[in-house]
Amino acid sequence: MAKLNDTVETSITKSEKLKEKIYATVFLSTVASISALAGFTRAVAATRKQDPKHFGDGISGMKGIPETGASLAIRALGWGTLYAVTGCGLFFYGIWKLSGATNTEEFRFKMGSLLPKIPKNDPPQSRTKFEGLTDLLTYISEDWGRNKEV
To answer: Quick check: 71 pLDDT over 50?
Structure first.
């Protein structure tokens, strides 16, 4: 009976962990997408502000040019995205295969033994509580890295 309860608890724990990983993946994907969209929008706005006449010509097209600047930019962005995703995917897949790992736990263990250890900061040697963003930025710009005289 105890073994049955352990199995049920383990499956519940695994499903909760899977659910948490899915939420984390969705969150990070959303943040990355919004950041990319914001960056692209800001670049377009800066271009429009810098040279409005030529920007308008690029949107509507000019006589004698078969493709507008906007459609050319969208096509270039699509190809660039394809190359970036494919290149990074192949690079990471190559690292995975060169490591000889068969699952993520094994890969994590192998990379952990290969890469330098990050020392624990327990107890913290510097401030960890801040009243707000201004307090944090003031600490980083002025106080961080100074030797504490005790």
So the answer is: yes
